[in-house]
Amino acid sequence: MALIELTDLSYDYPNTCGLDQLNLQLNAGEFICLMGPNGSGKSTLLRILSGLEPATHGTYAFDGQVITTDYLADPQDRQRLHQQIGLVFQNTDVQLFNTSVVDEVAFGPRQLGLSEAEITQRVEDCLALTHSTDLRDRVPYQLSGGEKKRVALASVLALNPKVLLLDEPLNGLTIAAQQQMLTLLKTLQAAGKTIIMASHNFKQVQAVEPRFVIFNADHQIQADLTAQELAKQPEQQAELLTL
Amino acid sequence: MHIPDNYLSPATCGTLVLAVAPVWTVAVIKVKAQIKQKRETLPMLGIAASLAFLIMMFNLPIPGGTTAHAVGGTLLAVLIGPWAAVLALTVTLLLQALLFGDGGILAFGANAFNMAVIMPMVGYACYRLGEKLHHPKIGLFVGAYLGINVAALVAGIELGLQPLLAHTASGAPLYCPYGLNVTVPAMLAAHLLVAGWVEAIFTVLVYQFVHKVAPTNLYQAAAPQSRRPWLYLLGGLAILSPLGLLASNTAWGEWSPAELKQRLVAEHISQQAPQGMVQGLHFKALFQDYTIGNLPISVGYILSAVTAVLIFLLLMRGLQHDSQTTK
Amino acid sequence: MTVKQPNNLPDWLQQPNQLTSQPQRHNFLAHNQQHLTHLLARLAQPAPAVNPTRWQLSPSISLIRLGILVLLIALTNNTIWLWVLGLLLAGHLLVLAPSQLRRFTRSWLLSTGIALVVVLPSYWLVGPATVLLFVCKTGLILASTQYYRLTTTFQDLLSGLKALHCPNLFIMTLAVAITYLRMLGHYLLQTMMALDMRLVAPAKHPYQLIGTLFGNLFLKSHAYALELYAAMEARGFNGQYVNQPTTTNRWHDYLTLTPYLVLVVVFIFGGIYGIN
């Protein structure tokens, strides 16, 4: 059974369409890259997958559990879902609200009721994994864009989510930092995590050979291909390079 | 605390707009000086207005399962400066009245007086006092609590005076039908017990965060410069004082206890004048009812106003001298 | 700085989480998110609900009309007057599209109902006539302000104030306020969502979180202010806020305003004074 199953899923904004009739099955341990033009629905899909908003039509099932409006309205169910799914926002400013980087990363584990030793362990590990150990005593608000991205990832990672959603994680990073980030994500995938990221950087992402889910401007899925399949379609590749 | 339309008589609304007008004038003068030092203050006025809007919209959880909301008057005064806060909150209230139906259009002056002037000013004064005593946070907490409660008290008085100010020949109130004995306790109970604490805690926590993360973004009170804006304010008030005549009969809130009792009895609202007024306000005003001998009443008003301004100036002078010698 | 090899994941990260759940009564975040989403949806639709092309008033006239109407209703305590004013208002409501009229009626009834509930206890103090008069007047005022809100865009409000010679600084501040209400509102919503994602247990100190939420929002607004000032200067801002001139028929304006002016004249010289 697929970990995430979308059936005829649509999402409507007050005046416009956000997503149109998606059917998609994502399996545990996959590395998925959502691609498509601006405003094609990638971020909307990530918000629905993370359980921040219910879909307008159709069903979304996570691990066999259908995520309905009622399910999301129940605080306990919502918490349980968020323990399994982490989301790194496109604008990391909104995600960092503590007064020091250490507190930021420890925010999630603290709520899980872990012991102080465990929390410290997790914080140190996450900072090391994201190459942010030297930032530990800084104020998140004063970090640079790339540093914020790394700290945001560390703070989500500290919750040890089963599924990691990332909205444009490579934006604002240097090429070297992009490669570091992708290597880390690939390692996490190897450890059994499911990675779903929205990105524009086709060239960089290609290296980790993800499964590509490509949206068109009409908020529908235009293609769903593995990296190997995509390699055989030069027109599609050319199109992705222009994004 | 937003007073809707038809709760206050148009005369009260007009009087309050005129009361706020000189404050706005001073605020504009003060903020212009502030803009010279910190240029982003200009766009910050509008942005702070939208920040205040969001603060007033945000539901804060309170024990018991219900919610309250903060006003943020004191907070804004500390973050962007008291005069800028006056202007920003005024804009917020105008937006709310015209586009969102929160608070009345005629009552805009009253709401501005309560929430855009009294609240930030009282709150900021307490904060400064606390700062001088080296406990700014305590000062801020007390200021936020007091600020919202004084504003609520004034709103309660404005509402409660309506049956006395505007009624039909038979004594039936035309606007807010509740007297002071209902409105003041109702407003104060809600704010003293719940909203005041919510406001105070909210204010201190936001301040604490900003203070920790980016202390340079807080408003730094400039060293006192000229006292000219204060003179404008006082002069404006003195010139405007004949407008007190607009309110029919005696100016509201300025009855002698006997007159108040007589009015209250006439309206069957309370058979007794409030205790505090009977016992607490027995001082003999210099110009009883603002008329001396056979002077026309308007001249009496202006003389009284000038006297009040002079006394106020003398008091300020005395305090100023005091603070300089203690340094 | 010691960098661990990324391919050596710590043990805890390789094992699935033990799911925990604690009971929670009130979720303030979800509640506020909903609230804010509604506000943003409203702000995202700047077009007026009603746009009668043939009989378009200039913004300043509709603002004056609102002022006169509200003032007249507030001043009078004569039921015949209220009746006439009510009829005038009802005439205006005829312009609304049916769906708009339904929406208007719904929210108008709701707000008048709230006013009724507030004033009802005074029935025992002052009797039914006063309560009735109060509710009628409040209802009429609410209807006229709501009609104004329904037919006026924010842009119209600005040009109306401009035409009435409001200071430029004030109009600019108002314009900035409404623009940034959307931006800050959106930012606040995103922050709440991010907090929601990481709030995997009931918040022990919800107020602490709210303090950081709004502290962050203030810092963001400060950053916006700096950016905005730089942008203003870059575009040669000189303190003047210029509005597009409105192209409406002045003849229409005065014709629409006439009944109100007549009413005002009658009110003043008719010897009917609202306040005794």
Can you tag this structure with a few keywords?
heterotrimer; B: 327 residues; mainly alpha; Arp2/3 complex 21 kDa subunit ARPC3; 12 helices; 2 strands; 67% helix; globular; C: 276 residues; disordered N terminus
How are the SSEs ordered, and which strands pair?
The complex is a heterotrimer of chains A (243), B (327) and C (276).
Chain A: E1 4-12, E2 17-26, E3 31-35, H1 42-49, E4 57-62, E5 65-66, H2 69-73, H3 75-84, E6 85-88, H4 101-111, H5 116-129, H6 145-157, E7 163-167, H7 175-190, E8 194-198, H8 202-206, E9 211-215, E10 221-225, H9 227-231, H10 234-241
Parallel strand pairs in A: 3-8, 3-9, 6-7, 7-8
Antiparallel strand pairs in A: 1-2, 1-4, 4-5, 9-10
Helix pairs in contact in A: 4-5, 4-6, 5-6
Chain B: H1 10-37, H2 41-57, E1 60-61, E2 67-68, H3 73-80, H4 82-100, H5 108-132, H6 136-160, H7 162-165, H8 180-213, H9 228-240, H10 257-266, H11 275-280, H12 297-326
Antiparallel strand pairs in B: 1-2
Helix pairs in contact in B: 1-4, 1-5, 1-9, 2-4, 3-4, 3-5, 3-6, 3-8, 4-5, 5-6, 6-8, 9-12
Chain C: H1 11-14, H2 28-43, H3 59-75, H4 79-93, H5 98-119, H6 123-126, H7 128-151, H8 154-163, H9 168-198, H10 206-234, H11 250-269
Helix pairs in contact in C: 2-9, 3-7, 3-8, 3-11, 4-7, 5-7, 8-9, 9-10
Membrane topology (chain C): Multi-pass membrane protein
InterPro entries (chain C): ABC/ECF_trnsptr_transmembrane (IPR003339), ECF_transporter_component (IPR051611)
Protein name (chain C): Energy-coupling factor transporter transmembrane component T
